[in-house]
Structures are given as C-alpha cells and as structure tokens.
Amino acid sequence: MPVINAFHIVQSARLLRLYRPTLKGHFTCRLGSSKAESFLCGSNANFLEAQYVDWTKKGAVDSARGHLLAKTDPLNLTIAAHWMTKAQNLELDDKGLEFKFVARELGTVLSDKHMDMEFELTDRTSIGGEETKLPLREIKRRLEKAYCGPIGVEYMHVHDIDGIQFIRERMETPGVMDMSVEHKKIIMRRLTKAVFIEKYFATKWPAEKRFGLEGGESLIVMLEEIVDTSTKLGVESIVMAMPHRGRLNVLVNVCRKQLTDIFAHFRPMEPKEVGSGDIKYHLGTHIHRFIRRTNRYIKVSMSCNPSHLEVVTPVVVGKARAEQHWTGDKNGDKVVTIFAFA
Predict the structure, then answer these.
(1) Least crowded by CB within 10 Å, which of 184, 211, 238, 329?
(2) How, if at all, do strands 296-302 and 237-241 pair?
C-alpha cells in the first residue's frame, strides 16, 4: 500500500507545481469542506482494499483516469479534465499521465499513426449509424461525445441484453440528442416550473415536511415527455405511482392538480373523526389532460400512496389491468403504468 500512496503523492505533487497559480483559489475555497470528509468511508475503503489486493497479485494497478475526461463540472469549480490532458504533452519522467487506446484484439497500443485506419464496428455498438466501419479518429470522437459529455448513463449492470441494447442505441446513435429550438424551449419551461414550485414551497412553508424534489427536477421533464410520447402512440390512460419524494411537484406539473388544493393541504386542519384525514403527500388525483403538441386527450392519474410504499405497486397494476379489461385493450396499447422514483 505504501508504494501506491507514494506513486499518487508524487504525481499529485507534480500537478500542483505545474498549476499552482490556477489551483490556489480552488483549494482555498474547498479547504473547509474537505477537512470534514474522510476518504476512508463507504465504498472508498472497499475500492482501496481491492486496489491493494490487485497490486499484490498482478504487481500493477490500473491508472483508472478515464473518468476525468467526462464533463462532470459545467461550472468549472473543480480541477478540470483539460489540465490532466495537458499533462501528457509535458516532459515528465514517466508516462503515468499519458492517455492510451488499447486494442485487445491486436494486443497493442493505438497511437496517432492508427487514427486514420478504419476499423470494423461490432453489432454491439450504434455509433456508426448506417455505417459498418469508421476511422479510429471518428470512433474516438463519437464515443467521447456519447460518454464524456455532461450526460452520464450507467447500464452495464442490467441483466437483460435487449435492455442494454435499447439504452445503448439511445446514447450512441449519431444525432439522437439533437432536437429543435422549440423543443428545447418546452423543456426549459417545464424545468423552470419544477424548480420554482419547490422554491415557493420552501419559502412559504419552511418548517413543513414536504419531501421536495430539489436536485431531481429533471424527473418532471422526463414524465412530461413520456406523457407526450404516449399520446402519439395512442395511449389513452396512464396510471402512476411514486413515493413521497417529489410527489407534490408531480401532482402539480404532470397531473395538473390545482394549486389551491395543494396549498389547502398545508393548513393544519382538525380531523372530523378519529382516524380520518390523510397527509398531503399521501393523496392522489386524476385528470383528463389535453396535450397541445399532439392535439389529443389522455387520462393521467396518481394513486394514493400510504407510508408502506411497496403496497402501491400491486394496486396500480390491478387498476391498469381493470382499465384494460373494461376498455377492450387486449394488447396493452391504450393503458400503461408508470412507477416514478426521484
């Protein structure tokens, strides 16, 4: 373990000497919070132990710096990845910071001389679109655009091969993220509504328990897109269920429950009798919404949810099955269920 620590200390010291003027302000701002944190906590301790075991068996540890290429900090408040990539162009004693492409099939490291060589694309990737082979330079560019940008996706743990391929196609296919300016404005408007309703709740009732959606407001955008797409596919009813977190926001922005009804639940009211009444984030609603983007109506309902959250799952499935039965939906094309988790 001392060998590993010494290696990383030396590398870190070199970077600090190279970029000391730039990083001085950064470490000054983050010094207070970093002291309160321990690197030997949770999964970090397990990771370090696994690294040590790997080092004792194989005599080498992966440099594992690929994550630094991802755009995880759009405000540039931490050490940016370009500082790390710049380091490979400096005259260092060793090549610990050099980024390499390794072709397992060829058993060699790919360099600049291979960038214009064309490689066959496997069926497991969708970066080629209609093309079956691409130059290495283009493969690198498309993979970086898909996996090193501000959007991250974790799906390799999924056991269903079709599910993995479904997600991969929607991450790698060229142009899959492109959308019109009008569509971007709709997303921005929905996201703004989700953010400001949470701010209003927090300002108006700061001491009330409400299970806010702060940090997960993109859930509203996702659900709205599902509703819009469902109407295009001919869906007539959506039965939803979700836990407490973000429930009020979904009721307002997706299920379109009246704000006056939501605000009324924040008032302390005496129950009419023992055992009557319910908490504001337990209640549900239903509405027939008119979707302007498709000029169609769709029924959206949120099921009431007790404190025992797992109980609602079979209830929602049963409600959807009943609607499919009475509407003659034998193929399950008109009634769907959504289980939303923020």
Answers:
(1) 184
(2) parallel
